[in-house]
Amino acid sequence: MLTIDQATYDAIVAHAKRDHPVEACGLVAGPVGSDRPERLVEMVNAAGSPTFYEYDSTDLLALYKEMDQRDEEPVVIYHSHTATEAYPSVTDVDLASEPGAHYVLVSTRDHGNNDGPVEFRSYRIVDGQVTEEEVRVVPTLAPAG
Q1: Domain boundaries in the chain?
Q2: How far is CA 119 from the centre of its chain?
Q3: Which residues are registered as beta bridge partners of 104?
């Protein structure tokens, strides 16, 4: 199960709506081994595509160096689907390289960047196997420890 605070959930949804019709992408880092999504990092979709996302390799390398310095790891890796449901595509599954991460997909197909609900779903993707998991949105994350 993914437990995420309301502010981070809202920020991911806002990013997906803001970038529509281009797929939005980013991650939420947290302390290594904690499974706590604490620090949202919006990334730029270097592909600029409505059907595919790609991190800029220089930005991604800098982010991983920063996470390493802060003893963080990617807890949530997210992107949006602008015309399809919030389910990992074959490409998404092939690119999933963080077996400990929650892969969040947000579908903006129904309302685009207008007001209205989105589809927000989370998956574990390990060795090509996709498993959907429950998403629990809480007002704030419980204190660490």
Answers
A1: 2-138
A2: 13
A3: 78, 122
